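USER:
Working in pairs, take the chain set out below, taking as long as you need, and write a paragraph about the fold.
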Amino acid sequence: MPDLKSSYDHVIVGGGVAADKAARAVHEKAPDATIAILSADADGPVYRPALTKDLWHGDDPDPASQDLNTAEETGADLHTGTPVTAIDTTAHSVTTADGATVGYGTLLLATGSSPRRLGAGQDARVAYLRSVADYRHLRDLVQEGTRTAVVGGGYIGSEIAAGLSAAGAEVTLFHAGDRLLGGMFPESISTHVAEVFAEKGIRLTGGFRLAGIDAGEHLTLTAEDGRSEMADIAVLGLGAQLETSLAREAGLELDGDLVVVDEQLRTSVPDVWAAGDIIRFPDPLLGDRHVEHIDHAEASGSAAGRNMVGGQEKYEYTPLFYSDLFDDGYEAVGRLDASLETVETWDADHGAAVVHYLEGSEVVGVLLWNTWDAVPTAREVIAASQAGRLSPDELAQQITPGG
């Protein structure tokens, strides 16, 4: 690790994909500029989706295969294990946990989020999965036949359960709803996913709201309704906590826990930008929103980096997100809220679908289930619907399921 200098042209706080993309954009536009990346993580930037996807299902389980080589390819001084504890926007400096003060010309906050935890000081057999260190710890816990409880039936919980099953664990997936992924998918798809998970040997337990975990010879998970289940290890996917305390303490404008940025990803404070999970940004199709997915982290990090070196680029982008669940996969744009009215279009074999989510008569989200190369068209459908050029009766003809 290089010595930490007293100042840099550009300082990036955070060590995820947004930080990587920002450093690349800065280096491309201003190759002689000095860049520091200050990350609390012990590891450098990696392609984080692989921690719940490819590393479990592919041939190479080593997270080093997902290293983005950020420092080598951008010339940035990468300082891992270096939490930033304060920002002085008047002095244009940040302070690290070990007391170092680092000046900046421009600053990017890409601090992301951390897992919501169940209390403090838990047993080492209770795991989360966000960082490379989390992944290594979980890999060490899992052997063939390990009784594993996954708590959380959302995006991350379902991916972790599939990955652990592929690694040979005996998995029970506990979720709070009536249907797995029932908050995102219509019943037709969530029922199919549940059937596939069951075929793969994953036991599903719905209506389970975790109240606590007792650690004895085995772990005992207790639900709010009094039910209890035993496991060798537990993996908790209870959602994410946005890391915006630095921004709040520095006096940046926030909307709840979200850092408010303009069309160029500038915060309310001069020379400070923000990108990734933590921002509320003006989506050109759907208005002010925030997104916690890799595509947004990459795109916003790149745009912020270019603007930090004098660009005037507007972040006019509606991000996508995606997942693979065994042999099924999907891409999606906008809001996937199963409480909304949906219009489903299936192929003849009932293996691929396009689902439009409507608020009133306007499309606010599109799910492309086993349907590929259609994200640009999905964005066009949302735009046309929002502009009143496309009625709900015309949606079935817009995208062919299966792609």
Summary: The longest helix spans residues 294-308. The chain has a mean pLDDT of 96.
